[in-house]
Amino acid sequence: MKRRLFIFVALPYANGPLHLGQIAGAYLPYDAFRRYAKLRGYDVISASGSDEHGTPITIRAIREGIDPSEIAKKFHAINSDIFQRMGIEFDAYIETSSKLHADIVTDFLGRLNHNGFIYESKMVQPYWAKEKIFLADRYVKGTCPHCGYESATGDQCENCGATLDPTDLINPVCIFDNTTPEFRETTHLF
How far apart are CA 55 and CA 153, in angstroms? Predict the structure, then answer.
């Protein structure tokens, strides 16, 4: 009986075509390893897909004035084609917007909650009053409190490498219109 090997490869954001760094950094090594394992007699099952729920997708959609799902569908198809043309294969290449993915995640979170691993807590989030939405950390920029870099985002400073929260920024503004966000307390599950 063949030994089984399951390989799951990182899901790229579906906000643009795959670039050389992604292909060389994640997908060519995966493909070489998958092929080697098959040559060694392993029963290989592999999966990857498109992450269709990231802030890069939303940012592009807002800037282009279209729905994020249109961006995700477009680049899922483009990236699937890139893999096919390169001969990089997956047994399953999913979309995180699919019903299958939603069912798996719902079941997994239900089990975590049932076993007491999920809790409720409050946090403060930036709110864009103009559009009546909460802003992801990457949608806020300002001055880093550690090094004074003026274009730090709400998750990190590219200059000094500090991990940040939007509430840490000095003079925070929304990246879309440079307005100052409101900071509101919200309740979340962790």
Answer: 13
